[in-house]
Automatic annotation (TrEMBL):
Keywords: Iron, Iron-sulfur, Lyase, Metal-binding, Mitochondrion, Transit peptide. Binds 1 [4Fe-4S] cluster per subunit. Its main location: mitochondrion. Pfam families: Aconitase, Aconitase_C. This is Aconitate hydratase, mitochondrial. Belongs to the aconitase/IPM isomerase family. It comes from Sistotremastrum niveocremeum HHB9708. GO terms for biological process: tricarboxylic acid cycle. Signal peptide: none annotated. One of its GO terms (molecular function) is aconitate hydratase activity. PANTHER family: ACONITATE HYDRATASE B (PTHR43160), HOMOCITRATE DEHYDRATASE, MITOCHONDRIAL (PTHR43160:SF2).
Length: 772
């Protein structure tokens, strides 16, 4: 099926409600005494659930917690599993906001698109069947395996200037290429939006990136973000939004801006955004979204889709695009940036073998029509000189639309003629789903146009050095096979003995004859109606999926006004991130099976009593004798005995990510309370959502006074439950040996969060409310 250009879609469900957003922003502007706002502030603040909640204290960037109402949710197949299982336990008939699921992460790359896809569909059948049936039941748009990578599909179909979207993947910010705020979150946050619960975010600081000049020659937007990654490092964007502005923004294509936004994740930024440009307007029209473009034009005319004159940034970085040169970043970290012209020297200085073992282009980061036409320009130049690629050269199209348009315009032929293998429209090698068939310990270097290059990410081999570069640089270097080759300067010998030098590649921003959809069966119908009678497919014997049982409220017995007496399972020493609490790696396959994944609970945490990792004691309360075992097995014993338990933990407990499994797993085993020297904010909220009470030692020295086998009773929780959110909670600790004593704690429970605790979890509360 070919549509030239794409027929205009029904855009009702994908056009932001600009009038409502601007109305809300007007109120916020009054509250903030009409101070000039950055674009990121305008988008965020126009999505504040109730502007009046800011009336007293205003909004201070880096300080105020905002309650936001995102307009859309997108989930990839790995993270969607637990998000949906949680959503199901709220017992709602449909999602509160339009939601989509994308089957992309579970597709392996072995020998080419068709066979890889077929094999992966068979091996992941139960997961895909589950996702599809849940999508049908709740009216979620389901993008089946082979349809493409979440971020490319979102950009082509859903993204719109001024929108606020959550996605359960760290490169969700890619959609910022269309002038919106798209934020990567954990499943529990996505469930907030899907259930219509306001989603909380600390108002980020805003870094302004002022772009002047124009990219030229070999340099692309990929090189801009690779350069910035070198400048900012992997932490430089933490707690910040990167907002680009200045004349240089206007000269870049929408998809080029998306590459920049995508890799803002590599500097730790909350997200990245750009003012509405002509390039965005053109892209919206080319992808069949004329109505969105026209609505955005109107919003822009009233000043919504750009920063106010005089808006202040927390920091400004100036970049003259005319002076940039291509960059190669890596290995093993995306912020190790080297200008291409210096790279040969770096290769020599490090003593790296001057060989590239594979070149990979495409992925969610760089598979736009512009990227592909530029790569094809290189391929055609090389072919005319009689050259073909010297190394395996793989191309991952980001979506069916890109794949089909590439095929129609003979771009695929041009790449295959020089030796490329085109993979399925899926993540494949970008997420470690690449079965290379090489030794898993061989030291080797690959060059990719992807976004991440942590050890083992692509082929599972710790010794594969992944260098990041633009698709054009990767393609040109594939014809040399050498790390030291600089296509800007060096020549290659052709089969007839001539010396050949590439000329800087040219690309086309958008296809002259429009995009083509490709296989229509990949496209879900827009805004599908929920089908409540759909049976959700989960086999009771499945090892990968398990229905979530609602957590029982400790207050179901109405006579109780304090938590039941709890035994301390362990005192955790030092750094304990969400990775320590719920390890990734081989456990990822159990993301949809709470019981199975819980077997990794705290397996890398250090026990402060003994200093060992994954060792804890189970004390018999009668005899005082202890049994030594792993932490998950002791937690299982507590669960089997129906014995509620608590954890004592150190500073910044739960730092790292929004991974909800780190809160679900202890709750699954019966944990009701965690007492910390301090908590990482996101994890603390996640604990509250799952019905665990997080308390802070008022005196941090008390941490050392409470140990495994001691019992704890709360004192004064009753007042909190009655709605006195300022009530202090004491803990009566009865040690295994010695006299009982009381200590004081602090808490951050809001009135709503107290209700989550009472109900047993936030989802129980939503479920109870929907039945009331
Ligand atoms: Fe993520 Fe790469 Fe897929 S960045 S979305 S794994 S293509």
């Amino acid at each position: 099926a070919s549509f030239t250009p794409l027929t205009e879609k029904d855009c009702t469900s994908i056009t932001p409600p600009y009038a409502v957003l601007q109305q809300r922003l007007k109120r916020i502007s009054e509250i903030l005494n009409h101070r000039p706002l950055t674009l990121a502030e305008k988008i965020l603040y126009s999505h504040i659930h109730n502007p009046e909640t800011c009336a007293n204290e205003g909004i201070v960037r880096g300080h105020t917690y905002l309650q936001l109402s995102p307009e859309r949710v997108a989930m990839q197949d790995a993270s969607a599993q637990m998000a949906l299982l949680q959503f199901m336990s709220a017992d709602l008939p449909t999602c509160a906001v339009p939601t989509s699921i994308h089957c992309d992460h579970l597709i392996q790359a072995i020998d080419g698109a068709e066979s890889d896809l077929e094999r992966s569909i068979v091996s992941n059948k139960e997961v895909f069947d589950f996702l599809e049936s849940a999508a049908r039941k709740y009216g979620i748009e389901f993008w089946r395996p082979g349809s493409g990578i979440i971020h490319q599909i979102v950009l082509e179909n859903y993204a719109a200037p001024g929108m606020l979207m959550l996605g359960t993947d760290s490169h969700t910010p890619n959609a910022g290429g269309l002038g919106m705020l798209a934020i990567g979150v954990g499943g529990a946050d996505a469930v907030d939006a899907m259930t219509g619960t306001p989603w909380e975010l600390k108002a980020p600081l805003i870094t302004g990136v002022h772009l002047t000049g124009k990219l030229n020659g070999w340099t692309t937007t990929k090189d801009l973000i690779l350069h910035l990654a070198g400048k900012l490092t992997v932490k430089g964007g933490t707690g910040r939004i990167l907002e680009y502005f200045g004349p240089g923004v206007e000269s870049e294509s929408c998809t080029g801006l998306a590459t920049i936004a995508n890799m803002g994740a590599e500097v730790g930024a909350t997200t990245s955004t750009f003012p509405y440009t002509d390039g965005m307007r053109a892209y919206l029209h080319a992808t069949g979204r004329g109505p969105v473009a026209r609505a955005a034009d109107e919003a822009q005319a009233s000043g919504f889709l750009r920063a106010d004159a005089g808006a202040e940034y927390d920091e400004v970085i100036d970049v003259n695009l005319s002076e940039l040169e291509p960059s190669i970043n890596g290995p093993f970290t995306p912020d190790l940036a080297t200008p291409l012209s210096h790279f040969a020297k770096v290769v020599q200085e490090n003593g790296w073998k001057d060989e590239i073992s594979a070149g990979l282009i495409g992925s969610c980061t760089n598979s736009s029509y512009e990227d592909m036409t530029r790569a094809v320009d290189i391929a055609r130049q090389a072919k005319a000189a009689g050259l073909s690629t010297k190394i395996p050269f793989l191309c991952t199209p980001g979506s069916e639309q890109i794949r089909a348009t590439m095929e129609r315009d003979h771009l695929t032929d041009a790449l295959e003629e020089v030796g490329a293998v085109v993979l399925a429209n899926a993540c494949g090698p970008c997420i470690g789903q690449w079965k290379r068939g090489t030794e898993s310990t061989d030291e080797n270097a690959i060059l990719t146009s992807f976004n991440r290059n942590f050890r083992s990410r692509n082929d599972g081999n710790r010794n594969t050095m992944n260098f990041l570069a633009s698709p054009t640089v990767v393609t040109a270097m594939a014809f040399s096979g050498k790390l030291s080759f600089d296509p800007q300067r060096d020549s290659l010998k052709t089969p007839d003995g001539q010396m050949f030098k590439f000329t800087p590649p040219k690309g086309e921003e958008l296809p002259a004859s429009g995009f083509t959809y490709g296989r229509l069966e990949y496209y879900p119908s827009p805004s599908p109606q929920p089908q409540p009678d759909t049976q959700i497919t989960i086999s009771p014997t499945s090892q990968r999926l398990q229905l979530l049982e609602p957590f029982k409220s400790p207050f179901d017995d109405n006579s109780r006004s304090e938590l039941p007496r709890m035994t301390v399972l362990m005192r955790v020493r030092g750094k304990c991130t969400t990775d320590h609490i719920s390890a990734a790696g081989p456990w990822l396959k159990y993301k949809g099976h709470l019981q199975n994944i819980s077997e990794n609970l705290l397996i890398t945490a250090v026990n402060d009593e003994g200093g060992e990792v994954n060792v804890a004691q189970d004390y018999d309360q009668e005899t005082g004798k202890s049994t030594t075992d792993t932490i998950p097995r002791i937690a299982q014993r507590f669960k089997a005995r129906g014995e509620p338990w608590a954890l004592v933990v150190d500073e910044n407990y739960g730092e790292g990510s929004a991974r909800e499994h780190a809160a679900l797993q202890p709750r699954f085993y019966g944990c009701l309370m965690i007492v910390a020297r301090s908590f990482a904010r996101i994890h603390e909220t996640n604990l509250k959502k799952q019905g665990i009470l997080p308390l802070w030692f008022a005196d941090k020295a008390d941490y050392a006074r409470v140990g495994a086998g001691d019992t704890i009773e709360t004192v004064g929780l009753e007042a909190l439950l009655k709605g006195e959110s300022s009530a202090r909670i004491g803990l009566k600790v009865t040690p295994r040996e010695g006299e009982a004593f009381e200590i004081l704690t602090n808490h951050t429970m809001s009135k709503d969060q107290i209700k989550w605790l009472q109900a047993g979890s936030a989802l129980n509360k939503i479920k109870n409310d929907s039945k009331a």
